[in-house]
What does this fold into?
Amino acid sequence: MVKISLVVTKRYKKSVSTSTPAILSLSLLLGLVISYVLIWFFTKLDPASFFSTFYSTLASYAGLLEPLLFLSLLGTAISVAFYGSFWNVGAEGQYVLGMLGAIYLVMFSPASSMLLGSDGTTAGVAKLLAVALGGFLGSLWSLLPGVLKAYTKIGEVPVMLLMNYIAYSISDYLTAGPWKGRYTYGYIRTDLIPESSKLTVIPGFEILRYEVVAAVAIVFIGAYLLIERTWLGLEIKVLGSNPVALRSSGRDEKKTIVLVSAISGFIAGLAGALRLLGYDYRLAYNIGDGKTGFYGYTAILVAWLSFRDLKLVLPSALIVSALSSFGYRMQMSLKGLLPPGVSAFAFSQIFIGVTLAVYTVIRITKEYSVKLVVAR
Amino acid sequence: MVKFRAVYALVVAAAVVAGLVGFFAGSTQVARPGPPVTVTVVRTVTTPIPISIPEKVRAAWIYVGPIGDLGWSYMHDLGRRVVENLFKQWLETTYYESVREAELLSRIDELVRAGYTVIFTTSFDFMDKTYEASLKYPNVLFFHCSGYKRWDNMGTYFADLYQIYYLNGLMAGALTKSGKIGYVAAFTIPEVIRHINAFAIGAREVGEQLGKSVEVYVVEIGAWFAPDKAVDAARYLVDVFGVDVIAFTEDSSAIVEFAQELHRKGKAVYVFGHYAPMYEYGPDAVVSGQLVRWEVIYADILVKIRSGVLNAANLRHVDYWYLLNTGAVELGAHVFENGTVMMVNPKYVPELKNVVVRDKLTGERVSVYDLVMRRYEQMKSAPLLQSLQFSAITHELENTTYVGIGGREKRYLVSTIFDPFVGPLEGWCRYTGDKAFTEYCRKSDRVSIPTGLRLGHADLWNMDWFVSWVKYLGVR
It folds into this structure.
């Protein structure tokens, strides 16, 4: 009788001393090579067009900026939570709540008519309030699972996944009901937000908005200072690595969980508000049908790639944006190599998937030794 | 260490201040009236765009959905495949699928950079962003499907199915036992309202004569592609309202498969295929359906570009509105291998031939099958109409049945001799007041089309009212 077992042990002496940036680069490289082999298997695509497409994706950086900014914001939100082992898979819902807050303030609140007159100064105030309200609603949405985790030990992951759908439903309810627009040509959506409440396009970069760039800078630096330079940041880190130590040092573990959930949700809500004011300009029915771009979920990948290292959020967001944009561009190269009517879209998702898989394997083998033991 | 901290703090402080300044600078850069100041105006001199007849044409399509599904995007891509192979000597094509509105401009940027000079965007949602792109790239020709915004280098096009829905309705009126007919609508936008009404008008034209009190129940699902919701709505219509015929606007074969399943269980619910050939998904349940041939429009546009007729300076009035007479739409739910169309499922031909009604145009007694074929021919044949359907300028002439020309002939047939949207018609407004799109519904919540009045292009395009025997059940 042969007994085969897989023995996984944590490496205590970090014998494999590769740094996270090195792992990232290695995953990207291996991911691309493996994806190419997979694609080649189906289409016999020549390597030159594969790698030149990847190069041109990076070269035409403008298309990457918009996902990069939002994935950075949401990635930061989730990363902060990861430091405290608060697994914020609810960023998608918090992002939607942020959109609701922003559109409420600029279209349906009493403040909107007061602030959005012809005067540009108060429009600035309205935008700031809209973003703040978005952040506030996002943090409320994250606070509930945070409080549940802290005080009742109910795991945050299932609660948050459910709450994402509830957020979609609230948005759909408002869009089809009280917020349904007049000038929508019969479609179920809100009207466009007032012109003066839209964020400002940076001349020469149609895809960028001043306010979004500023927000990314502020949020990123703020999160970095919070984690690395404050007591709360230290508590969050200890909560993530050794909650027992936090408790025995007399600190309130529950309070830390609640705070980290609120902060993470605030950033995600902020991102949603900026998205609405800067790009979407309205809500549409069936928001859960890809209208958010699923950025709240994609950002989990960003946070995972930059695991507990905020400095890596930006490069990780860049990698994820580049891979998804690359996937789009590959559709063009694959056209003609696939049977007519077969979607090239499926292939566009290969790169992210494979790169993440490689990354995960490398990380696991770095921290754990895996041995196959065959015994008789 | 202290020094490092100080520098660090300074850098951080500077970044935060810069960020805040940027935020407010951005927020407050809204055009507002200020005191008069001296401004040096740099006037952009618009140089005329050099027009030359292109030797090669590079065209790109941007789809809202995946091309693998049997619906809207699939049929657009079929059109692309036809022209790509037919014009391979001078045409090169590419496409993007499953593109979201928010990323449309990035995709267009990429296509323009890759050298594509003709871009088709095939979703109503793409209208505003396509318009923006047409201003940004004045040398690129844009064609937007289903919208109404045009520019020098941006035209619009649409192939409409309302006549086909009317023909489907005639068959529905003959086949229904209960008189209760269901319709699953993606959205109640004017296009879909027009289709529902045409279907309802056909159904009542036949059903009434057979002593049935025809009612059409509409459920809106709020999505173009949502197989689960579509089936859910269809089941609701069958179970709660007892409908035994279903037509729909949703880009999958889900409802057809649902009806086929009911047939297998011994419950006869008839269904009409939508957009793509769906007969194979429900050979027992599908009676007929609507088919589209975008290639008819794509071929016309591309030939006109290749021959220099259409260019980046003259698209402002180009607005294709192609109906049955052009071949861009077709009656049926199946295309045979040799390219011909099965108009009516052979299984239902005997039944439709057995039901006899009166043709309201001539008073003759004919079978429903013959009535369908008659109406088909009447709407298929209109030799002069296609020219009018090419341009926004001539759309208003499309409901001109005859033009007086004097002489021995006295008058000349311009449009189709039959159209379903001729008064008397009574209806109620889906949208009223300032939410309405037509004058009828801005003024009142009821619509009454006088006898003999034939609705024009604008009435059809903006249709915001249901005929009185349509019951709207809301969003589900």
